[in-house]
What does this fold into?
Amino acid sequence: MSEDSVVLNQVTKVFESGSSAEEDLAAVQELSLNIRQGEFFTLLGPSGCGKTTTLRMIAGFETPTSGDIFIGRQRVNDVPPYHRPVNTVFQNYALFPHLTVAENIAFGLTMKRLPKDEITRRTRKALSMVQLPDLGERKPRQLSGGQQQRVALARALVNEPKVLLLDEPLGALDLKLRKEMQFELKHLQSEIDITFIYVTHDQEEALTMSDRIAVLNQGLLLQVDTPVNVYEKPATRFVAEFIGRTNFLPGRVLAVNNGTAEIELAGQSLLLPTDQSYNTGKEVTVAVRPEKLRLNGLGHAKNLDEKFVIQGTVRESVYAGTDTQYIIGLESGERLTVHVRNSQALPSDEFARGRRVSLSCPVEALRLLPE
Amino acid sequence: MKRTMAWVYFWLITALLYLPIVLLVIFSFNDSVLLTFPMKGFTLKWYGELFRDAELIKALSNSVVVGFTSSLAATIVGTMAAIGISRHRFFAKEFFLNVASLPLVVPYVVLGVAMLLLFRFVGIPLTLWTVGIGHVVVNIPYVLLIVAARLAGFDAHIEEAAMDLGANYWQTLLRVTLPISAPALLAAFLSSFSTSFDEFALTFFLIGTDTTLPIYLYSQMRFPSRLPLVLALAAVIIFATLITVVLLEWLRHLDQPRRRKKRLEIL
It folds into this structure.
């Protein structure tokens, strides 16, 4: 996991609008990434964030306006797609409709002019790898969506690329199949030790499958980190909002020293870690995840190890199977969402609508968002 | 009431379309040079004479040769234009498309006069070649539209997938783009052929001493005794056309794998 597999250095892609009236669109701006050998790396963001453009630049379908792309140690800016050691699984699979499944899978090997028996052997192996050993003679349109997806995967992997690019490969599948394929893909990747670069807008998919996630928005890279850190320590308000659900509370800086900031939050003074320096009196935003908050009846004794406590009134409660979701109105007018796991038999009416409650969480659950 | 009107309308149009054809076929078997009822008797002699008429056979073969050659050329040029327009970005694309589509709107008579002037001006003698060139020009826009529609209908990612798997531009064209477009190419060729085969207005201006079938038939109309022969020939052509239409329809269905896929999913 040490060697870099794909490196992007200050890569910018500008699409010319084609008319002088419209402004040219920067799809990707000064993006730098170091993707390691054997890593499951995910580009995550809403549609139009530049993730697909980035993938297409690595595949060779788009040329960067500026900046460099390296695969292995080779600069590939001017290398056409058919000479790059990468293969792509396309969003709608893009299988060749006029060829059989086996011919589809053998396409890349045929282009390399490998001996016929080797092509047959590797095609057969790829078919069994994706668990479709008997469907080689079918045409793609005779397969289900999930089977087509596997064929697309086999067609790419049979070439033993250094890097596999996947452009929302599970987007067209239904939820159950998608969950199964997520698991299978992850399992496959850990076995074959090929770098996967995975594009998705589905934050849950990104969290469950990736070694690292790069979060993009409007062509800008916001954060690159492990799923745990992206979720627990979001770098910006956008990241916090896009991945999972988050509450935001307005606070004010009282003092800063040595990597901690003293913040006034809902009338309490708290010490939160930060790597930035703030002016005293600066308005800041503190994020807290709905499942980190605890809901307590007012009559209960305060939980001593939980340092942040705030009072409010239950405005709404929604039963959602594994947990119950409450909307709590604070005196300041803010509304907080709290998820309470339904670990007890049934939710009690202690938190019925209109009840006064107190919310609490450990200080570590509070995240001071950088500017 | 409304339904009755629709019924009357339908049969009126049908009669207008098909009655002349039915009469033509019937009279081609009539043992007389006069096209009047009552008919004299059943005969196949006009069909027999047809195949002994050297001049007519020559005109027919001229038409087939011109039709085949010009359609092939139009299909090749039109397909290249379609690929250029739907798969590449280039300067003044719109302008190019409009120029290529011009023969769709310019009357063939005007085009015929214009091309005649051009050939005279450049000093090219009028032969079947000039006719063929004229047919290529009028058929290019049809080929372009038919093939471009097919290209627009399939996912451009498919061609990217081929390149991703190691195929260069030409390999992608030969192994993926053209095979997937094959039904459209054949349909474009057949449609060009049928246009060329019965084209009259343009041909009339560009023809030299060798004639094509429509021009020959028109010239024979001056001799009443030749009329039944023309009828017999027309009947033969109608059957040939029917077969072509059925073939084209069949190809058009081949051309729509998506619909078939839907049907499969329903099953």
About this structure: DSSP finds eight helices and 20 strands in chain A. Chain A touches chain B through 26 residues (CB under 8 Å). Chain A has two domains: 4-241, 247-369.
